[in-house]
Write a sequence for this structure.
């Protein structure tokens, strides 16, 4: 992309999604090519701001206290390759918190123990997944039209980010009516597909 002579790219990137879209590899590649990198979803649509109790307990072990949202933002601003962080805010208090976080940010200011803690939190979020799915698609196609990998992803995210109620409301949005898990007839074709592959 270009804007008024500036060349840049925009990626979804945060400490739990280092491999989504371009990921860390793409971030470094873009920076090496001289592109400014704009990061969206730094707090994963707010999911990282209100962690499950097990994750909050990890954050509470830090010597320096930060909110979960501040940890997510600081992790990004710590990287020299990140040019701009787009953080959605819906209240004036969130604006104040983001401005304060940005004011305290800088490249390479996180200590090793802080980076290690973020790594532990990332692993803890991974451990919260209930269904191991790599989205290989071997279970597809479903004769009933169920998008099995997408349903697994929605379920895993709902469990990991403690948002079961929110997921129930949002499932129709990313998943078309026929692709939802409730269209499953228990025919077990998905299992036979996996065994074939």
């Amino acid at each position: 992309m270009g804007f008024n002579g500036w060349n840049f790219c925009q990626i979804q990137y945060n400490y739990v999604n280092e491999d989504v879209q371009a990921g860390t590899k793409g971030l470094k590649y873009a920076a090496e090519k001289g592109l400014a990198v704009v990061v969206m979803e730094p707090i994963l649509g707010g999911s990282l701001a209100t962690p499950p109790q097990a994750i909050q307990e990890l954050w509470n072990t830090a010597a320096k206290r930060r909110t979960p949202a501040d940890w997510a933002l600081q992790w990004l601003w710590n990287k020299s390759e990140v040019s701009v962080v787009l953080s959605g805010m819906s209240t004036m208090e969130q604006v104040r918190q983001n401005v304060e976080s940005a004011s305290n940010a800088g490249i390479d200011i996180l200590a090793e123990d802080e980076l290690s803690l973020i790594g532990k939190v990332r692993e803890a979020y991974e451990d919260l997944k209930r269904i191991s799915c790599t989205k290989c698609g071997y279970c597809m196609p479903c004769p009933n039209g169920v998008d099995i990998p997408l349903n697994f992803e929605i379920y895993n995210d709902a469990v990991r980010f403690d948002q079961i109620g929110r997921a129930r409301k949002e499932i129709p949005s990313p998943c078309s009516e026929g692709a939802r898990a409730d269209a499953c007839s228990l025919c077990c074709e998905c299992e036979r597909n996996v065994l074939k592959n």
Q: What stands out?
A: Helices lie at 23-32, 53-59, 68-77, 92-103, 112-127, 148-160, 164-170, 189-196.
